[in-house]
Each structure stands twice: as C-alpha cells, then as structure tokens.
C-alpha cells in the first residue's frame, strides 16, 4: 500500500484454518478504510458458499446449523461484477474476497479470470485458497501469492490453551498434534471431539488391525450418521496421522506411507462432491492406516 502501485490480485495460500480469511478481512479493511465492520462494509464483498436450499437459508436466519452448497456459483461472480460497474460507495477502493477460491465452479473461475484481466480501477481481489493447484493457471499467473506457514505443535497448543482453557490437556495435545500446524483445524478437532478418533487411528497405524476390531472402534468413534463436516475432518485427521508417521519412518516404510497419504488426499478431494457411505469411508480409512503397520513389519523382517 505504501508503494506507487499495488497489485490488484492476491492469492492467500495455506492450510485450511491458518488464518487466511481473518487476514483477508483485515487487509480489505485497511484497503477501503473507515471504522465499519468489514463484514458489513459496502465496499467489501465476500463471496463464499451459500446455503444449500431454502430450508437451509431459513435455518441460517434462525441461527441453526445448516448445509452449504458445494461450490461458489457463477451467478455469485456475475452479481459481484455488476457491482464493479459502479463506483465504490464510501471511497475510491473496494475489495473482493473469495473464500475459498478452490471451490469456484469452472464457469465461475473463468468469470473471475475476466475481472482479473481487466480489473476496474480501485478494485482489489483477495483469493483465499487451501489448494492453489486447483486454481486455473491463468488466475495464478495474474496474482501475487502470500503463503501462510504451518505453526509448530507448541504454538498450536498455546492457541488452544487460550481459546479452549476448559478442555482436557490431553485432548488439546492430540488436537495440536493432528492439526498439521493449523490452529483452525485444531480448534475444529476440539469442537468435533475427535480425540477418540485420533486415538483409534494412531493405534491402527502402529498395531495394525488384522481382526478389524480397531476399525470397529473407529466406526463407533465416528458415529452412526456423521455429517459431511465430520467426514472431512476425519480424512484430514488420518492424513495428519500418516504425516506424523512419515517424520520418523524407516526408508523401507516410506513407499507405503506415500501411497496411504496419496489415497487419503484423493478422498479429501472427492469428499466435498461425492456422497460417501460413512461406514465404507471408515473402513477405507482404517485399511489405509493398517497398511502402515504391515509395511513396518515387512521392513523390520
């Protein structure tokens, strides 16, 4: 902002829960100025997932839990572009935040690209993204990237102690260890009470599960009807367990770890779109984790 000309397009990249959206709101507030709340400022436009149905809209308005659409639609982008044809309301700048830009529909991505190619004067774009590789290469080429680093486990534990002081220290430690350096992910693990899931996953990865008993425990910890949010969190938790194993693995165990992590990453990419059977999903996760123990035994032999 202190330079002669600030770039109009910014990609805020990093693990989900690393503070990118909070940074985007603060940056937008600095850009447009004033004392208003960023979420109600007329020159700050936030585009994100809308409620899935009209019933979900009612639930949102009533303060109840509601489901979201899986993607950010092109209609949302076009409505924003119509507003870009007018002057900013209170000053000479406006900010557009898209969170997460990973979930733009293909046609919505193309519409965003057009705005980035011909940005109206005084308009700045902040694209929050957990997986920059999912953005169009042409979008990435027209933006500057700000990367948000992972925090240490000790830093995450300190944040949990501040925001969840009443929680069991062991649960905070487990959430921090499984978060992959993301305070937001750790807080979500605490909120969803995933400590039991994490314990079952760690046991499967270390002990194996030839008789499927531990996978039964994993199923019980997951719950009978887990919603999509809990399913996604479970996949992220399993990936964190695999990543933790990789840090102390013997060389001969690494191929199995890489394969398990790759398969879990594929599940994570599919889960927001596909309707997985929760029971089969748990069995798949458990099987991938059990393969780590098998590879360890083979390497030791």
UniProtKB/TrEMBL annotation:
State the Gene Ontology terms under molecular function: DNA-directed DNA polymerase activity
Q: Does the keyword Cell cycle apply?
A: no
State the superkingdom. Bacteria
Keyword annotations from UniProtKB, A to Z: Nucleotidyltransferase, Transferase
- Give a GO cellular-component term: DNA polymerase III complex
Q: What Enzyme Commission number does this protein have? A: 2.7.7.7
Q: Write down the InterPro entries for this protein, in alphabetical order.
A: DNA_Rep/Repair_Clamp_Loader (IPR050238), P-loop_NTPase (IPR027417)
A GO biological-process term: DNA-templated DNA replication
Xref: PANTHER family: DNA POLYMERASE III SUBUNIT DELTA (PTHR11669:SF8), REPLICATION FACTOR C / DNA POLYMERASE III GAMMA-TAU SUBUNIT (PTHR11669)
Query: What name goes with this protein?
Result: DNA polymerase III subunit tau
Organism of derivation: Paraurantiacibacter namhicola
Source taxonomy: Bacteria, Pseudomonadati, Pseudomonadota, Alphaproteobacteria, Sphingomonadales
